[in-house]
Structures are given as structure tokens and as C-alpha cells.
Design a protein that fits this description.
390 residues, alpha/beta, Rossmann fold, 2 domains, 18 helices, binds nicotinamide-adenine-dinucleotide, binds magnesium ion
């Protein structure tokens, strides 16, 4: 029986994870659940899953959480604050950590799980982008096993040799090809993109996700973050990572080998497949997903990404090549710009402007400790906030 700590349990990945967990009560127990501010949603999950611990990241809501659990007759211990989330990630009562917090807020708990040698099921791509080699190094030093939940990286994980040790050449790997749906605005002109509203950006044609990643998918920054994530997780040179637009989101990514073979993982666009794969690995379990019927799907289309209409992807490749602080700045500027766009404070095309402005002034600082990363992130957020005004 695996004892799970689900960080970000009230989100989209959290819900998909708990759906798979509920299908396999003999294999998995949701033993700790965390949320940001939504006490009612967290307590509802506690009523369904009966965890040992419930954590609300907003430290001011400790009493509210305690009272709500008591009122429902639930036995979960109530904890609050960001440090409590980190403590749960490291707590030896839980062997598996699902890192499903959105954004840089997930960095320290992801690292805490790696340091504690956990089985780390990783959805929080921003923490991978920010932490460079630090996360992977920490995991390997402490015997943590990272299994990616992001559908592309999980697809690649499934297409790699089982004992893959981040040495592409030793395994005859020539390229990683990440597929991208192209988002809701594939084929749009720049003039039309300038008119995009938050609700339109969040209405993704294939995937139902949280609002931040939905906007990232619409700008293609999501794919940019994923290119960096792939470089970190699989230890491959940036020049050997490519993006292929595939609007049907059935082929979730590919690995190319020296003999010309390309191995792909296919499935319905449903996050429960990569989540079930990561939860049960190396076993295979039912994920509750609709079976893929290729005869009904009928066609699979592929095209090159349009880096002129969607420069965020080009910015991400540039930040990856630049290294050092650049990926941290890219991520921080993007988080600030996306939050402002969702609030109606800036337009859709201002997102790429704020990111470009951050990258222009980036110096190639070393970013190999948590303190250095947090410092670069904070400075980049200050600059991006000032750049919002244009
Ligand atoms: P979401 O917004 O639906 O959920 C985010 C979760 O994080 C919520 O439980 C929220 O309470 C918690 N949270 C937010 N801010 C927090 C803070 N400051 N401190 C502590 N907790 C906080 O997001 P999501 O779509 O589930 O995405 C989560 C992560 O998974 C993101 O990094 C995203 O890029 C990645 N991801 C998501 C999908 C998807 O299909 N949704 C697919 C691949 C990767
Ligand atoms: Mg993805």
C-alpha cells in the first residue's frame, strides 16, 4: 500500500490523481492532502479520502481549517503555512509525493520531497525549470525517483529504456520530440491574437486544466517550459529536443533512436493515463480513461510550430541555451504576466513582451543553490511587475 501526499490536491491534477487513487483503494491511500486557500474544497476531499493530515498553505486559515474538520467529524490533523507543506513533502509517513502545486510556489516542497528520497510524481514543471540541475542532483543524491506526470514527459519516460540513466548517447537516443496541441489559437494572425480574452485563452480544445497552464498552452509557453523540463529530466542537449504540433493530442511525444526508430506513446487526452502510469510504475493499472479508438480518431495531423506568431516558445529555447539565471527569469516573468492577463490588467500579447523584457536584462548568474534561485526569481518578479506598465 503506497501512502501518498498529494500537494495541490484541490487542483486539476490533484482531482485526476484522486480519481485514480479512488479506483485502487487496495494499492493507494491519500494520506496527506494540501491546498492553497480553499478550506471548503480541502475539507470535502478529507471527507472522501480520510487522510491523516490536511494542510492549508495560507497560514491565516489554520483555525478555519481546524474548525471545519471538527464540524464534519473528521480526524485529519490540521496544519497551515508553506513550511507545513514542505514538512509533509519530507514526512517519512508518506512514501510517495504528488507535486501538483502550480508555479514557483511548488519549488521548495518539490525539493523537500527529493531530499527526503521520495518517489516523486512530478507535475509542477515550474519547479523543474527553475531548479536546473539542482532538483535532479538532489534526487539522485538522496535516492528519490522522479516520475514525470506531465503527459509529454511521461510519454517519453514510457518510450525510454527502463534503466535509462540520463545518458542519451549510451542508449542510442538521437532526439526527443515533444508534441504540442498548438492551443486554442493555432493558425491565428497576430492582429487576432491581440484581442484574446482570459476566458477564450482558458477554453483549451483538448485538455481541461488549471487557468495558469491553460494560458501557457495558448501562448505556447507551456511547450517552452516543457522543452526545458525535458532537458532537465532526461539530460539531453537542447539541440536534440524538438517540438511538433499535433492538434489531436493523441500522440503524447516521441523518442528517436540512432537506427531511425521513433517510439511514441498514444492515448486519449486524459491526464489520468500518465498519472496512473506514474502511480503504479512499473505495474500497469486501470486509469478509468476512455479507450483510444484510432479508427474513430481517423486522422493524426502534424506540423511545425509557428515561432513568429508564438514567440514564447522561441524565448524558452533561447533561455535554455543561455542557461544560468535565464530559465528562472523566463518562468518568473511568465508567472507575473499570466496573472496580470488573467486579472484583465494586460493584453494577451503583453505576456511575450514582459518575458522578452526580463530576458533582455538577464546576466548569466550561477543558479545552483536554492537561495540563489529564490533570489533571482524575486528580482525577476520585481522587474516583470514594473514591465507590466509597458
Ligand atoms: P490548478 O490551478 O488546477 O491547481 C493548483 C493547485 O495548487 C491547487 O490545489 C492550489 O490550491 C495549489 N496552490 C496554488 N497556489 C499555491 C500556493 N501558493 N501554495 C500552495 N499551494 C498552492 O493547477 P493544475 O492545472 O492542476 O496544475 C498544477 C501543476 O501541474 C502546474 O505546474 C501545471 O503546469 C502542471 N500540469 C498540469 C496539467 C493539467 O492537465 N492540469 C498537465 C501537466 C502539467
Ligand atoms: Mg504537458
Amino acid at each position: 500500500m503506497k501512502q501518498l501526499a498529494v500537494l495541490g490536491a484541490t487542483g486539476s491534477i490533484g482531482a485526476s490523481t484522486l480519481d485514480v487513487v479512488a479506483r485502487h483503494p487496495q494499492r493507494f491511500r491519500a494520506a496527506a492532502l494540501t491546498a492553497h486557500r480553499d478550506v471548503a474544497a480541502l475539507v470535502d476531499l478529507c471527507a472522501r479520502f480520510d487522510p491523516d493530515v490536511a494542510v492549508i498553505a495560507d497560514a491565516d486559515r489554520h483555525d478555519e481549517l481546524g474548525a471545519a474538520l471538527k464540524a464534519r467529524g473528521l480526524r485529519a490533523e490540521a496544519l497551515a503555512g508553506a513550511a507545513a507543506v514542505d514538512a509533509i513533502a519530507a514526512d517519512t509517513r508518506f512514501d510517495t509525493v504528488v507535486a501538483a502545486i502550480v508555479g514557483a510556489a511548488g519549488l521548495s516542497s518539490t525539493l523537500a520531497a527529493a531530499r527526503a528520497g521520495k518517489r516523486l510524481l512530478l507535475a509542477n514543471k515550474e519547479s523543474v525549470v527553475m531548479s536546473g540541475e539542482l532538483l535532479v542532483r538532489t534526487a539522485s543524491a538522496h535516492g528519490a525517483r522522479i516520475i514525470p506526470l506531465d503527459s509529454e514527459h511521461n510519454a517519453i519516460f514510457q518510450c525510454l529504456p527502463r534503466d535509462y540513466a540520463r545518458e542519451p548517447d549510451a542508449n542510442g537516443i538521437t532526439r526527443l520530440i515533444l508534441t504540442a496541441s498548438g492551443g486554442p489559437f493555432r493558425g491565428w494572425s497576430r492582429d487576432r491574437l491581440a484581442t484574446v480574452t482570459p476566458d477564450a485563452a482558458c477554453a483549451h480544445p483538448r485538455w481541461k486544466m488549471g487557468r495558469k497552464i491553460s494560458v501557457d498552452s495558448a501562448t505556447l509557453m507551456n511547450k517552452g517550459l516543457e522543452v526545458i523540463e525535458a532537458q532537465r529530466l532526461f539530460g539531453i542537449d537542447p539541440s536534440r529536443i524538438e517540438v511538433l504540433v499535433h492538434p489531436q493530442s493523441i500522440v503524447h511525444s516521441l523518442v528517436e533512436y540512432a537506427d531511425g526508430s521513433q517510439l511514441a506513446q498514444l492515448g486519449s487526452p486524459d491526464m489520468r493515463t500518465p498519472i496512473a502510469n506514474a502511480l503504479a510504475w512499473p505495474d500497469r493499472i486501470d486509469a478509468g480513461v476512455q479507450r483510444l479508438d484510432l479508427a474513430t480518431a481517423a486522422r493524426l495531423d502534424f506540423e511545425a510550430p509557428d515561432l513568429v506568431a508564438f514567440p514564447c516558445l522561441a524565448h524558452a529555447f533561447a533561455a535554455l541555451r543561455a542557461g544560468g539565471a535565464a530559465p528562472i527569469v523566463l518562468n518568473a516573468a511568465n508567472e507575473i504576466a499570466v496573472a496580470a492577463f488573467l486579472d484583465g490588467r494586460i493584453g494577451f500579447l503583453d505576456i511575450e513582451r514582459v518575458i522578452a523584457s526580463g530576458l533582455e536584462r538577464t546576466v548569466n548568474e550561477a543558479a545552483d543553490t536554492l537561495d540563489a534561485i529564490v533570489g533571482i526569481d524575486a528580482e525577476a518578479r520585481r522587474h516583470a511587475t514594473a514591465a507590466l506598465k509597458g
